[in-house]
Design brief:
Number of strands: 4
Radius of gyration: 37 Å
Strand content: 5-15%
Strand order of the largest sheet: 1-2
Helix content: 40-55%
Distance between the termini: 96 Å
Number of helices: 6
Order of helices and strands: EEHHHEEHHH
Length: 150
């Protein structure tokens, strides 16, 4: 199958001739620089340059990510990441709602020794959790007392 181009007699950009290439300016070199010129080869190269991705560098990505990441807040916690008793700069024992509060009380009772993230004694840890939870949810303390009375 042959593709022929139409050129006009007036501008030298007409008539039917065999194409010399496969894209606009290659097919119609006599039309180059005229209003009808659509230099697709050049435009395609420019598009490809724009689309070209920079090579991925993980260390640069991590540096940028560290700049933009904020410290995640878990809401109300017994031990915030900024507390002097916390070694690992993480929040511990979140007590945002009643379920979290009762879970914090249950979890702290499971410790047999001081956790690695805590600066202090085991009794200090347990008393701090109980004090904070009962202060925020006084109903939990009365529930516990009712359970013990039965």
């Amino acid at each position: 199958m042959f593709i022929y181009k139409k050129t006009h007699a007036s501008g030298g950009c007409g008539g039917f001739q065999k194409p010399k290439g496969h894209l606009d300016t290659q097919m119609y070199p006599e039309c180059e620089g005229k209003p009808g010129d659509r230099d697709i080869v050049k435009k395609t190269r420019e598009k490809r340059k724009k689309k070209q991705k920079k090579s991925f560098n993980l260390s640069d990505f991590m540096k940028e990510a560290k700049k933009t990441v904020k410290q995640r807040s878990r809401g109300t916690c017994v031990f915030q990441s900024t507390s002097p008793k916390v070694k690992d700069n993480k929040d511990h024992f979140p007590i945002n709602n009643l379920a979290h509060g009762s879970n914090a009380l249950a979890r702290v009772e499971q410790y047999k020794s001081v956790p690695s993230w805590y600066k202090g004694t085991l009794d200090g840890l347990k008393s701090a959790v109980k004090k904070t939870v009962y202060k925020k949810f006084p109903g939990l303390k009365s529930r516990k007392e009712k359970k013990e009375d039965k």
